[in-house]
Amino acid sequence: MKEAPRTVEGVLGRARVSVPLYRDAETTREIAARVNERLGEIEEATGRVDTQAFALIAAYMFAADEDRMTRERGEETQELLVRLDKVCTALRGLADETILPESDQRR
Question: Of all residues in the chain, what percent are helix, strand and coil, respectively (each to 5)?
Answer without folding.
Answer: 70, 10, 20
